[in-house]
Amino acid sequence: MYVAGYLALDASSYIYPVVPLGITPWNPSAGLSLFLLLTCGRRFWPAVLIAAVAADVVVRNATVNAPMLTTAAFITGCYVVAATFLQRSWKVSAPLESTRDLVIFFVVASAASGTVAVMFVGLYAAIGMVSMRDMPLDVLRYWVGDLNGILVLTPALFSIRKIGNIGFAIRKLVSPEIILQLLSIGAALGLILAFAGDYPYRSFYALFLPLIWISARWGLPGAAVAQVIIQLGLITCVQLADYHAATFVQLQWLMTGLCVTGLTIGAMSSHRARLELALLDRQAALNRAQQFASAGEMTSALAHQLNQPMTALNSYVGACQIMVGQPILDAARLRDLMAKIEGEVRRSSEVVARLRDFYRRGATNLCPIEAGRLVDNVIQVLHRNAQSADVEIVSRPGEWSRRLLVDTVQTENAIQNLLLNAIEAMEMAGSKTRRIETSISVTQTSVEIRIHDSGPGVSAEMMAELFEPFHTSKADGMGMGLAIARSLVRASGGDLWIEPAAAGGACFVMRLPAPTSSDVLRA
């Protein structure tokens, strides 16, 4: 199949040959040979040699002799060396996928075709078939013919090989944009025909516009295929206008510059497209990681926030069991304990629902509530904890009746976390004075609640990472409490931080938004 394709390309491009050498201004068979060696390997060098000899015999009607076999063997050897060098320099799985690969391809193609041109013409000049005066011009003709054959055909074959589904690619050609691009190529070729009698290469530069458009839009594959279309159109124009051979050679020199421009822009466009795809993949991976992190954070938050209600439920259920075992059942006290159990269950359900909504959608349920009631609710829940740890919780006088606009459950969870941390810190440190003071300061748009304990305080090393997840000074702590607390406060439009305490201990400040009259009406 390769030999048949080689002969077909050599015969179709056999125009304006230099007699008796048969040098043509364009030699696509060189591009086919290089493609075969790059994709199938050096072991196919005999096929390249046979095809070169067969083309001389069939297309050029030459007789088999020593110079023909020598040049065919040298041509084969040069392209085998070029293919070997490119295989070692490129990424085998993705040739011509980077600007670096393309530069190496340009250099190797130029060197290989130039070496073949010098050897071929030089050998025939040495045996007297070419005059030394014509040798430089014949070398340039041979060089540009082979070089353009490689630059036009080899990238196109790689692109077609990579497409896979040819039928799908052909169906895409009916898109309006591609039809318009093909029409623009036809218009540029029409200019060359229109100025056939007056330096047609001057209008050749119009071909740069559609090729740049196609290269930027479709990348390297688009540029490679467009170059084949342009070259075929150019040959058609040459035949129709009956150009001189020298004019066609000049057009092929310009075609070299066109190929370099189109392939370079195409490679850069393809590289940009790959970077964009890689960025999208990385963003998708990051989103998945964030989803997993959010799920993990929600799990940690649930475990942290449900610990206290579960502890209370365990105590209440234990008390109920003791009361049931008593000879005389205190029904009133039992009802009280059952009511407390019901309240803790309801509170746990609300915590689960609010945290789930918060971590899924960042949802909050803002409603007005008095600051004093917000803090008192938490103090009542933690009464048993404070009592068992011998901790006194007091509220300093202030504007506790000032209303807030917050998510009640989430904000109570944040305050509960701060108070529990203070109780546990003083108990673990064995503080003699165990006291927590809550105070309030009010501005026109916000309320600041301070929670100041008499415990050991926070070290300077811990201060910078205090609100980061998984940082804790507790042996059995998860390091999520303060991170969750600040997230919950910020979800209501507030903030949470720690400030230096002159009297010792730790002082946390929670700033919460105060509603305006319109906020209250909307709530």
Automatic annotation (TrEMBL):
It is found in: Cell membrane. SUPFAM superfamilies: ATPase domain of HSP90 chaperone/DNA topoisomerase II/histidine kinase (SSF55874), Homodimeric domain of signal transducing histidine kinase (SSF47384). Its EC number is 2.7.13.3. The keyword Kinase applies. SMART domains: HATPase_c (SM00387), HisKA (SM00388). It is a multi-pass membrane protein. It is an enzyme of class 2 (transferase). This is histidine kinase. The lineage of its organism: Bacteria, Pseudomonadati, Pseudomonadota, Gammaproteobacteria, Nevskiales.
